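Duplicate of earlier report; SsrA-binding protein input re-posted below.
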Amino acid sequence: MAREQGNKIIASNRRARHDYAIEDTLEAGVALTGTEVKSLRAGRASLADGFALVSDGEVWLHNVHIPEYTQGTWTNHLPKRTRKLLLHRGEIERLVRKTSEQGLTLVPLSLYFKDGKVKVELALARGKRTYDKRQDLAKRDAAREVERAWRRRR
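Output:
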């Protein structure tokens, strides 16, 4: 049986980059059931309200919606169940330090297959204020206008 190679993005959380200032990212494995993996292979998932918490030395992913597998039977999974993230002990300890001391939160940025295994890209992020969001939009609009002006001049 040939294994999948490369990355295939299942879902991404575009809203997270708007609502949070991303300070650091890391990759974690996700402990899933069989029907969850089959549902993800169909490309169905939502990270919209997702977040991760560290409790009892383990990292848990909350509010990530993976819909039930359509051909699943009574063994189907719950769509918004809490899922365990697979990280090394040192990474977990680093996350505990950063989230407790500096007021950072763990936000999932994307869910993807990497060499046939489901991975999640987690971000250590700080929440943005409303005026920060407006400033980012204004900068992006200004950069777009400058780019248009340059193209017109050429």
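The mean pLDDT is 85.

Merging into the original ticket.
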